[in-house]
Amino acid sequence: MDFFNEASNAVIENIRSERQSSFVTITYTTNQGCCNNQQTVTLIVTDQTIIRDEQNRIVSARELEKGMVIDALFSSAMTRSIPPQAQAFHIRIVSRPATRDVSEGRIIQIDTRNQFIVTINDNLSSRIRFNITPDTIIRDFFGRRIELRNLALGLKVRVEHANFMTASIPPQTTAYVIQVIR
Predict the structure, then answer these.
(1) Do 174 and 117 share a structural domain?
(2) Is the pTM for the entire model greater than 0.85?
(3) One domain, residues 64 and 127
(4) Do the strands 172-180 and 156-162 form a parallel or antiparallel pair, or are they unpaired?
(5) Do 117 and 129 form a contact (C-beta atoms < 8 A)?
(6) Is 129:170 a contact under the CB 8 Å cutoff?
(7) Rounded to whole angstroms, how far apart are CA atoms 160 and 157?
(8) What percent of the chain has pLDDT over 90?
(9) Are 23 and 46 in a shared domain?
(10) For a surface tag, which of 13, 69, 88, 181 has the fewest beta carbons within 10 Å of its beta carbon?
(11) Who's near 169: CB < 8 A, 6+ residues apart?
(12) In this predicted model, what pLDDT tens digit does every residue of 81-129 receive, in sequence order?
């Protein structure tokens, strides 16, 4: 009989703290025979729980944040609550959530060959080049997914992008989501 469960590449959905414990709700996928099954469990994290970051350094529960991907080892003894709760023995941070900024502007350049757009904001003071990756989601005014080639000069867009920019002129960053707003 196993005394522990493992969750690989689990996503932290919620965190709350009370007194000496943190309650970390995770969602992960298990492979049971022919099917993948989505599981949710709330880990009870105490000062006895070993938490390691991406460089294998020991960190505190305060380092955990919503959206992180973790591997967890926890007790097979669980409450019957929904979601069930179990004592966490070991947590390893796999990756942190990408932090994002949001910018709005009108498209003044589209380069489908090199996969980027350039926008300018309404007061004409700043241009930004947004690099498009295979993971970039582009949506039309109604929220339907479209391709880069479907965008047009002059469209107003809201871009969720990385929170860093190059020091070039114009500054460049990676676009995560491009939403046409007008």
Answers:
(1) yes
(2) no
(3) no
(4) antiparallel
(5) yes
(6) yes
(7) 10
(8) 63
(9) yes
(10) 181
(11) none
(12) 999 999 999 999 998 876 778 999 999 999 999 999 999 987 766 899 9
